[in-house]
């Protein structure tokens, strides 16, 4: 716990907005590499860029989900970064979709066709649409407007969206590469932990009410 306290003390001095700078720099850097066909972008730069943005979004989803269990298990308090992580997730998913729509399929008609006919695209598109209200309401004004309870209920959409994102990746790839299943496994475990702790809290709350009665 002493190590956690030291890290927490350091983290308190780091503003959350620095994550936006890092995320934007990474997004632009990958686009520049693809534009100039450097490194892994030498062959099929559009497909590689599309995949890179999608994987970055999945990693951010996992990082966002791991914050609560990390605090419970180690005492590390990274909650202040969760909103920034959530918004960066949305922007990387948006970039992923725009590369697909504008650079890959290139026409609105083909976008609609892909969404309707390809199940993995359908699942990914549903996840993208589900992220929009979460991104729009990721601000203090929305919390006051909706109220904390309704706001939290709305943002629980992040959990099925996380699973849809992982399923989109698993469904997308050909064969049985390990990486998509690692993402799926990590997200499944983190969501299972959240369900378990929610049930424990509910059980303890019910016992407390019974004792008061």
């Amino acid at each position: 716990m002493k190590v956690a306290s030291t890290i927490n003390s350091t983290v308190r001095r780091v503003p959350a907005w620095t994550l936006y700078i890092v995320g934007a720099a990474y997004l632009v850097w990958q686009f520049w590499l693809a534009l100039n066909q450097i490194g892994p972008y030498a062959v099929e730069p559009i497909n590689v860029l599309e995949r890179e943005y999608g994987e970055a979004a999945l990693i951010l989803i996992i990082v966002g989900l791991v914050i609560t269990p990390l605090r419970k298990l180690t005492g590390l308090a990274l909650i202040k970064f969760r909103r920034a992580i959530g918004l960066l997730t949305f922007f990387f998913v948006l970039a992923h979709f725009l590369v697909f729509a504008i650079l890959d399929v290139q026409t609105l008609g083909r976008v609609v066709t892909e969404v309707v006919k390809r199940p993995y695209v359908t699942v990914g598109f549903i996840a993208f649409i589900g992220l929009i209200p979460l991104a729009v309401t990721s601000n203090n004004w929305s919390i006051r407007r909706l109220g904390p309870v309704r706001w939290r209920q709305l943002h629980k959409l992040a959990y099925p969206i996380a699973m849809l994102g992982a399923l989109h990746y698993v469904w997308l790839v050909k064969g049985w590469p390990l990486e998509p299943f690692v993402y799926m496994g990590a997200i499944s475990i983190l969501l299972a932990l959240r369900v378990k702790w929610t049930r424990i809290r509910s059980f303890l709350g019910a016992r407390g009410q019974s004792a008061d009665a």
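The chain has a mean pLDDT of 85. The radius of gyration is 19 Å.
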